[in-house]
Amino acid sequence: MSTCVVVVRNEDTRGFVAASLQSKGMDVLSLASPSELVQALQDNSVNGILLELTTFVTATPAEKQTIQDVVDFFPNAKFKVADNEVRVLSQSFDAFVAECQQFKARPLRKHLRKERVLAVYLSTDASFEHAEKTVTVNISAGGCFIYSPLEWHIGDRVWLRFPENSVALSGVIRTSHAWGNNRLIPGIGIQLDDLLNPTLVDPPSETVA
Protein backbone atom coordinates (compact mmCIF):
# COMPACT_ATOMS: atom_id res chain seq x y z
CA MET A 1 0.00 0.00 0.00
CA SER A 2 1.26 3.49 -0.85
CA THR A 3 2.05 5.79 2.08
CA CYS A 4 1.60 9.56 2.18
CA VAL A 5 3.03 11.78 4.91
CA VAL A 6 0.55 14.43 6.05
CA VAL A 7 1.93 17.45 7.94
CA VAL A 8 -0.79 19.46 9.74
CA ARG A 9 -0.70 21.14 13.13
CA ASN A 10 -4.46 20.90 13.72
CA GLU A 11 -5.46 17.45 14.98
CA ASP A 12 -8.97 17.49 13.47
CA THR A 13 -7.60 18.46 10.06
CA ARG A 14 -5.00 15.69 10.26
CA GLY A 15 -7.76 13.19 10.89
CA PHE A 16 -9.90 14.48 8.03
CA VAL A 17 -7.05 14.38 5.51
CA ALA A 18 -5.98 10.93 6.69
CA ALA A 19 -9.52 9.62 6.18
CA SER A 20 -9.67 11.20 2.70
CA LEU A 21 -6.40 9.51 1.68
CA GLN A 22 -7.41 6.17 3.18
CA SER A 23 -10.62 6.27 1.15
CA LYS A 24 -8.37 6.33 -1.94
CA GLY A 25 -6.42 3.28 -0.80
CA MET A 26 -3.50 5.19 0.73
CA ASP A 27 -1.79 4.52 4.03
CA VAL A 28 -1.04 7.67 6.06
CA LEU A 29 1.77 8.85 8.32
CA SER A 30 0.48 11.91 10.18
CA LEU A 31 2.83 14.54 11.63
CA ALA A 32 1.95 17.55 13.75
CA SER A 33 5.06 19.58 12.89
CA PRO A 34 7.48 20.01 9.97
CA SER A 35 10.30 19.47 12.47
CA GLU A 36 9.31 15.79 12.56
CA LEU A 37 9.77 15.32 8.81
CA VAL A 38 13.42 14.31 8.58
CA GLN A 39 13.26 11.54 11.17
CA ALA A 40 9.94 10.25 9.88
CA LEU A 41 11.21 10.08 6.30
CA GLN A 42 14.44 8.37 7.31
CA ASP A 43 12.54 5.76 9.35
CA ASN A 44 9.79 5.03 6.79
CA SER A 45 9.50 4.32 3.07
CA VAL A 46 6.90 6.74 1.70
CA ASN A 47 5.38 7.72 -1.64
CA GLY A 48 4.59 11.40 -1.10
CA ILE A 49 4.16 14.37 1.23
CA LEU A 50 1.12 16.58 1.76
CA LEU A 51 1.79 19.82 3.67
CA GLU A 52 -1.05 22.02 4.87
CA LEU A 53 -0.72 25.58 3.60
CA THR A 54 -1.38 27.21 6.98
CA THR A 55 1.13 24.93 8.67
CA PHE A 56 3.73 25.98 6.12
CA VAL A 57 2.96 29.70 6.36
CA THR A 58 3.21 29.67 10.15
CA ALA A 59 6.32 27.47 10.25
CA THR A 60 9.45 28.78 11.92
CA PRO A 61 12.52 29.54 9.76
CA ALA A 62 14.09 26.28 10.97
CA GLU A 63 10.96 24.31 10.04
CA LYS A 64 10.84 25.92 6.59
CA GLN A 65 14.47 24.95 6.07
CA THR A 66 13.61 21.37 7.02
CA ILE A 67 10.77 21.38 4.50
CA GLN A 68 13.06 22.75 1.79
CA ASP A 69 15.69 20.14 2.60
CA VAL A 70 13.46 17.12 2.07
CA VAL A 71 10.26 17.60 0.07
CA ASP A 72 11.68 17.56 -3.46
CA PHE A 73 12.83 13.96 -3.04
CA PHE A 74 9.18 12.83 -3.09
CA PRO A 75 5.95 13.80 -4.85
CA ASN A 76 4.75 16.70 -2.74
CA ALA A 77 2.09 19.37 -2.61
CA LYS A 78 0.54 21.92 -0.32
CA PHE A 79 -3.17 21.75 0.44
CA LYS A 80 -6.00 23.35 2.34
CA VAL A 81 -9.33 21.99 3.52
CA ALA A 82 -12.34 23.94 2.25
CA ASP A 83 -16.01 23.06 1.75
CA ASN A 84 -15.36 19.72 3.44
CA GLU A 85 -12.81 18.57 0.89
CA VAL A 86 -9.03 18.41 0.53
CA ARG A 87 -7.93 20.92 -2.09
CA VAL A 88 -4.40 20.30 -3.34
CA LEU A 89 -2.74 23.37 -4.80
CA SER A 90 -1.60 23.22 -8.46
CA GLN A 91 -3.39 19.91 -9.18
CA SER A 92 -6.40 17.86 -8.13
CA PHE A 93 -6.46 15.66 -5.05
CA ASP A 94 -7.00 12.56 -7.21
CA ALA A 95 -4.05 13.51 -9.46
CA PHE A 96 -1.75 13.84 -6.46
CA VAL A 97 -2.87 10.45 -5.11
CA ALA A 98 -2.21 8.87 -8.52
CA GLU A 99 1.27 10.46 -8.63
CA CYS A 100 2.07 9.02 -5.21
CA GLN A 101 0.82 5.57 -6.18
CA GLN A 102 3.05 5.56 -9.25
CA PHE A 103 6.12 6.61 -7.25
CA LYS A 104 8.27 3.83 -5.79
CA ALA A 105 8.23 4.16 -2.02
CA ARG A 106 11.59 4.85 -0.39
CA PRO A 107 13.02 6.41 2.75
CA LEU A 108 14.92 9.66 2.79
CA ARG A 109 18.61 9.25 2.20
CA LYS A 110 20.81 10.26 5.08
CA HIS A 111 22.39 13.06 3.01
CA LEU A 112 20.48 16.32 3.42
CA ARG A 113 20.64 19.04 0.79
CA LYS A 114 22.63 22.23 1.07
CA GLU A 115 21.99 25.39 -0.91
CA ARG A 116 24.81 25.53 -3.46
CA VAL A 117 24.88 27.38 -6.78
CA LEU A 118 27.26 25.46 -9.04
CA ALA A 119 27.62 25.66 -12.81
CA VAL A 120 26.69 22.36 -14.44
CA TYR A 121 26.09 20.86 -17.89
CA LEU A 122 22.74 19.03 -18.05
CA SER A 123 22.17 16.55 -20.87
CA THR A 124 19.62 13.97 -22.01
CA ASP A 125 22.44 11.65 -23.11
CA ALA A 126 26.04 10.86 -22.24
CA SER A 127 27.45 12.66 -25.29
CA PHE A 128 26.61 16.17 -23.93
CA GLU A 129 26.30 17.29 -27.55
CA HIS A 130 23.25 19.44 -26.80
CA ALA A 131 23.82 19.98 -23.09
CA GLU A 132 22.06 22.81 -21.28
CA LYS A 133 24.32 25.21 -19.38
CA THR A 134 22.64 25.77 -16.03
CA VAL A 135 23.21 25.78 -12.25
CA THR A 136 22.33 23.76 -9.20
CA VAL A 137 19.90 25.23 -6.67
CA ASN A 138 20.77 22.78 -3.92
CA ILE A 139 22.91 19.69 -3.67
CA SER A 140 23.61 16.66 -1.50
CA ALA A 141 25.86 13.65 -1.73
CA GLY A 142 22.99 11.66 -3.26
CA GLY A 143 21.34 14.15 -5.59
CA CYS A 144 20.58 17.73 -6.51
CA PHE A 145 17.96 20.14 -7.77
CA ILE A 146 18.92 21.90 -11.01
CA TYR A 147 17.36 25.02 -12.47
CA SER A 148 15.90 24.48 -15.92
CA PRO A 149 12.99 26.12 -17.79
CA LEU A 150 12.84 23.21 -20.25
CA GLU A 151 10.24 20.43 -20.22
CA TRP A 152 11.29 17.32 -18.28
CA HIS A 153 9.53 14.16 -17.15
CA ILE A 154 9.74 12.23 -13.91
CA GLY A 155 11.55 8.93 -14.46
CA ASP A 156 13.74 10.20 -17.33
CA ARG A 157 17.49 9.61 -17.10
CA VAL A 158 19.84 12.60 -17.35
CA TRP A 159 23.59 13.22 -17.28
CA LEU A 160 25.52 15.91 -15.40
CA ARG A 161 29.02 17.25 -15.70
CA PHE A 162 30.59 20.02 -13.66
CA PRO A 163 33.01 22.31 -15.58
CA GLU A 164 35.88 21.65 -13.19
CA ASN A 165 35.41 17.88 -13.43
CA SER A 166 35.41 15.81 -16.63
CA VAL A 167 33.62 12.88 -14.97
CA ALA A 168 29.97 12.54 -16.05
CA LEU A 169 27.31 11.54 -13.53
CA SER A 170 23.98 9.95 -14.34
CA GLY A 171 20.72 9.97 -12.43
CA VAL A 172 16.94 9.77 -12.61
CA ILE A 173 14.51 12.69 -12.41
CA ARG A 174 12.40 12.33 -9.27
CA THR A 175 10.66 15.72 -9.28
CA SER A 176 9.94 18.26 -12.01
CA HIS A 177 8.71 21.85 -11.63
CA ALA A 178 7.48 23.36 -14.88
CA TRP A 179 8.31 26.93 -15.88
CA GLY A 180 5.45 29.34 -15.24
CA ASN A 181 4.54 28.28 -11.70
CA ASN A 182 5.41 31.39 -9.70
CA ARG A 183 5.44 29.44 -6.44
CA LEU A 184 8.26 27.11 -7.47
CA ILE A 185 11.68 27.44 -9.09
CA PRO A 186 11.53 25.66 -12.47
CA GLY A 187 13.80 22.68 -12.64
CA ILE A 188 14.32 19.04 -11.76
CA GLY A 189 15.24 17.06 -8.67
CA ILE A 190 17.68 14.30 -9.58
CA GLN A 191 18.58 11.16 -7.66
CA LEU A 192 22.13 10.29 -8.70
CA ASP A 193 23.42 6.76 -9.26
CA ASP A 194 26.71 7.61 -7.54
CA LEU A 195 27.54 9.90 -4.65
CA LEU A 196 28.83 13.36 -5.45
CA ASN A 197 32.34 14.39 -4.56
CA PRO A 198 32.09 15.65 -0.96
CA THR A 199 34.08 18.78 -1.87
CA LEU A 200 31.13 19.88 -4.03
CA VAL A 201 28.68 19.40 -1.19
CA ASP A 202 30.84 20.58 1.69
CA PRO A 203 33.70 22.66 0.27
CA PRO A 204 36.58 23.47 2.62
CA SER A 205 36.20 26.77 4.44
CA GLU A 206 38.12 29.65 2.96
CA THR A 207 40.84 31.04 5.20
CA VAL A 208 42.29 34.49 5.16
CA ALA A 209 46.05 34.73 5.44
Commentary on this structure:
- By secondary structure, the protein is α+β, with helices and mostly antiparallel strands.
- It has two domains: 3-102, Rossmann fold, CATH 3.40.50.2300; 114-201, Thrombin, subunit H.
- It is 23% helix and 32% strand.
- The protein has six helices and twelve strands.
- The chain has helices spanning 11-22, 37-43, 53-57, 61-70, 93-102, 198-201; strands at 3-7, 27-31, 48-52, 76-82, 85-88, 114-115, 119-123, 132-140, 143-147, 157-161, 169-177, 187-192.
- The strands form two sheets. A six-stranded antiparallel barrel has the order 7-8-9-12-11-10. The protein has a five-stranded mixed β-sheet with strand order 2-1-3-4-5, with helices on both faces.
- Strand 8 (132-140) and strand 9 (143-147) form a beta hairpin.
| Portion in helices | 10-25%
Q: What fold name stands as the CATH topology of the largest domain?
A: Rossmann fold
Q: Would you count the extended β strands for me?
A: 12
Q: What distance separates the N and C termini?
A: 58 Å
Strand order of the largest sheet: 7-8-9-12-11-10
What's the CATH superfamily of the largest domain, by name? Response regulator
Poorly predicted runs are 205-209
**CATH class category of the largest domain:** Alpha Beta
Number of helical segments with 4 or more residues: 6
Kindly estimate the percentage of residues that lie in beta strands according to DSSP: 25-35%
